[in-house]
Amino acid sequence: MSKRSSRSFDPHDLQYLQRIGSRWYARVPVPNRLRPRLGPYLRRTLETSDLREAQRRRWDVVTWARGRFQEEAPAPEASGYAAFLSRLKVAGPAEDVNVLTGEPMTNPAVDALIDQVEAYRGPDKDERVEALQDFIAGREPVSAILASYLEANPKRSPTTAANYRKAVDLWIEKHGDRPLRGVTRRKALEWLEEVGKGKARDTVQRYATVLSHLVDWDCRMDEKPPLNPFKDLVKGLGKKHSGGRETYHPFTSGELKAVFKALDGRDDLKAAAMVSLFSGLRLSEVFQVVRMDIDGVDCYVLPDGQGKTDNAARVIPVHPRLADVVIPNGLKASAASVAFGRKLDHLKLGDGKVFHSLRKNFAGALERMGCPELTAVRLLGHSPISISYRVYSKHRDAAALREWVERVHFKLD
């Protein structure tokens, strides 16, 4: 017997009780969100005119009512990249054709979802934006790439097909069912090292080969296909995650002061270094960005096709320290790199300390502040984010990025 049903009798205890005529009923209020379907109350007869018995029986009705509320409660909206991508696919293609003019037009259903993303404030906004970008760009998730590849190669043995599915499942388990475009070599190598622990080298090689083939398949129609991050990946196992490339290190606080002191008399180099330090731009990007106002936010914009990689295009709010800094005209990135290197040679800072170290300093500052990873990759250009400037050009998104950029601080004096 429950504690409630064993309580001593109280003639004034009428909680959940209603008397109609000589009979007692249990009446349980319905939550507001369910009232359009269930009404204000759920009510059941208690089959008694005795108050003491009604007080005992009411709890069975309360338990039943609460179970009903759970059944009727709307399922929470699925969140995250995959859920929003599914909604976009249901909405139809990103572009449609105007039946009156025959001209291409934005699909109104997709347009409505873009508006939702702009106004959305939930914790998975970055994932929704990423799904929107991939959808608009027509980037297929890895599962769709695999299906297309196997369909085009029907003569592959069941064992080979199973090997392909296994490798893709391992990738999805770690990184989700997302496009392979934009995957960096570092990301690919870190994944391969993780899934390859305790496995034979041939097995690890097979994983890398499968993903490499799928990247090539996905990019087969590209005029200038991007570098394949999985190609010859096994050669990098056991080495640093850089895959054999030169490793760059950020400057220490004291080194930063020494670097900018050494740049006295070279205003062009100092301006380029300032921009990189407070924006995270690569040296080549410093001379390619366009500065423009986006809904009241002063921004550097690196258009598609201008950066070092396919993922480089991005929007970066201008740091207050750069308000009056003008990127020098006439100075080429190659010449700036040589001149900057000569300045550093005199400082004897050691290996891995180059112009790119300024970008490392910016990235490190974001990390120390606890900047969300997806926000950091927006600013640093490690993930494809330039497909729909409409989303990022809205003041609320640019302003959100600006909040992180403005918090970056370095003492240079």
Automatic annotation (TrEMBL):
PROSITE patterns recorded for this chain? CB (PS51900), TYR_RECOMBINASE (PS51898)
Q: Which InterPro entries match?
A: CB, DNA_brk_join_enz, DUF6538, Integrase-like_cat_sf, Integrase_catalytic, Integrase_recombinase_N, Phage_Integrase
- Domain of life (superkingdom): Bacteria
SUPFAM superfamilies for the chain = DNA breaking-rejoining enzymes
Sorted alphabetically, which keywords does the UniProt record give? Answer: DNA integration, DNA recombination, DNA-binding
| Family that this chain belongs to | Belongs to the 'phage' integrase family.
Provide the GO MF annotations for this entry: DNA binding
All copies of the Core-binding (CB) domain together span 140-219
Keyword flag Ribonucleoprotein? no
Annotated Tyr recombinase domain residues: 246-406
Q: What is this protein called?
A: Site-specific recombinase XerD
**Which organism was this protein described from?**
Microvirga mediterraneensis
Q: Does the keyword Transmembrane helix apply?
A: no
**Which processes are annotated in GO (biological process)?**
DNA integration; DNA recombination
**One Pfam entry name:** DUF6538
